[in-house]
Amino acid sequence: MTGWTMRISRALAGAVTLAVIGSAAHAANCEGDRKLFPKDWKAVANETPLFSCAGRYIHLRIFLTPQTGSTLLLTVVNDKDVYRAILDPRDVDRLKRQTGLYILYSEKTCFVRGDYNGPAILSFADGSMSNGFDFLSAANVLDAFDRCEPAKPQ
Asked: 88 pairs with which residues across the strands?
């Protein structure tokens, strides 16, 4: 290796090391993250319905409500639980096409600290679940529905 390529390689290695150290040193802020979601976790009356998904063993109501800025709040309700996630516009387009996997918070979940107490994976994928289970092996999987239809106005 020539001198300048060696210096570039070292600079890149140093930048990668700093990025890894910097991300590892980032403090967990579960309560700060929690402020992004409604205080009354289970209240969905003021949210915008998107789909209703039915299956033999599961029925989901899916809401997509604009938040501040360009983000939207995804809310998924099954018979007993309410799950939420913040989506950016790219995720919203995929969700409306009913494709992809979505990692959802439960009322007590904190992903940053590794407390996977009741999270869920909403799957509009091909059934492989390869991305979801590698990350959350104990997640509630919301994928056993046969069809989704546009939600009826309430």
From this structure: none
Instruction: Please give the angle made by the CA atoms of 42, 47 and 56, to the nearest 5 degrees.
Output: 70
pLDDT in tens, the chain (154 residues): 554 444 434 444 433 333 333 344 345 577 777 888 999 999 999 999 999 998 888 899 999 999 888 899 999 999 889 999 999 988 899 999 888 888 898 888 877 656 667 788 888 866 555 554 555 556 778 887 778 899 876 5
With contact defined as beta carbons under 8 Å apart, do 111 and 118 qualify?
A: no
Residue type, 51: F
**Cα–Cα distance between 147 and 85 in angstroms, integer?**
22
Question: Is the Cβ–Cβ distance between 151 and 62 less than 8 Å?
Answer: yes
The number of residues making up the chain comes to: 154
Helix (H, G, I), strand (E, B) or coil at 24: helix
Predicted TM-score (pTM) of this structure: 0.73
